[in-house]
């Protein structure tokens, strides 16, 4: 790479914030909700979102340039990214854009978080119910494909399942809809648990599922389970908390019970894969004590808690990795 290319690439990296802000702004003013697979002209969109047409035209054209939306002689429409932008799509990612905006605001304090670890705060424990709904909307879209993968690959017939830090409840709800014999419980923070119970009721699963408010670091269920779900949780906790949590899970699993665990793990060099490297930086501003673990670190923690037959599955549709660990008696 010559000097001219170095400078060009370097400036492109520095300017990458512009695309993120473009997408956030488009989402906030309602452009993505206005667009569909049918073409709308500039005036139609402006009227729907109540913004002057000359003020949104550069935004729309910027989105076209980046191939996020499409444009023809009649106007603008969704094509390549329709599955993640159509407002009625189950894979809609606009909630994730909302969450990204929250994270970007925190990134402005990255320097303070590095210099003073007391500056960082736990993003989840300080969520309001409204913020929790926004966060869960984004996480649900990501979780659906993973949940469907797990429900299709593994047998849960007649199983009793505990879902710890269940998010929108997507995993347990998806598995329960596929297996009518499944019963289960979600545990989470109070503001999140309320939303989970609403989702359970919406899916007509109140006779088999429930969510309760529970801080797993302070108390833990006593009943026995065939499976425990621990999705996107371990990176929120320091090593000593993860070890305690895994020990508690092992104790409440039935003989031959299974732990399904996901997170964004680092390779042993800690400079790959890309998503996990970036996520490790994000954790500095999101959590005082959270950590992105390496694959060896999580395997060792599982083995120290007496789990065996540990299987690593990279095929799950996500930047995350799925581990399945067993309680063999």
Would you kindly provide a written description of the structure presented here, covering whatever features stand out?
- The longest helix is centred in the middle third of the chain and has 25 residues, at 129-153.
- The strands form two sheets. A seven-stranded mixed beta sheet has the order 5-4-3-6-7-9-8, with helices on both faces. A two-stranded antiparallel sheet has the order 1-2.
- The protein starts with a helix and ends with a strand.
- It has two domains: 3-89, Orthogonal Bundle (Arc Repressor Mutant, subunit A); 109-326, Rossmann fold, CATH 3.40.50.150.
- The mean pLDDT is 92.
- It is globular, with a radius of gyration of 22 Å.
- It contains 14 helices and nine strands.
- It has 329 residues and is α/β, with parallel strands linked by helices.
- It has helices at residues 3-14, 17-28, 31-34, 42-49, 53-65, 82-85, 94-107, 110-115, 129-153, 170-178, 190-202, 239-252, 274-286, 295-304; strands spanning 70-72, 75-77, 160-164, 183-188, 209-213, 225-231, 253-263, 308-313, 321-326.
